Amino acid sequence: MKNLKTFITGLIALLVLNISQAQEIKPSEVKKVMKRVADWQIEHFRDTYSNKKEPHHPLDWTNGALYTGMIKWAAMADDDTYYNWLKHIGETNNWNLYKRKYHADDHTVGQMYIELYRKYGDEKMIKPTKEQFEFILYHPSISVLNWKTPYAQDRWNWCDALFMSPPVWAQLYNLTGEKKYLDFMMAEFKASTNFLFDKKENLYYRDERYFDRLDNDLKIFWSRGNGWVFGGLVNIMNELNQNTKEYKYFLNIYKKMAKKILELQTPEGHWAMSLLQQDFYPTPETSGSSFFVFGLAWGINNNILNKDTYLPAVQKGWHTLVSHVTDDGMLGYVQPIGAEPGKAWADKTEVYGTGAFLSAGSEVYKLYNNRQ
Question: Which segments of the protein form a coiled coil according to its record (predicted)?
Answer without folding.
Answer: none
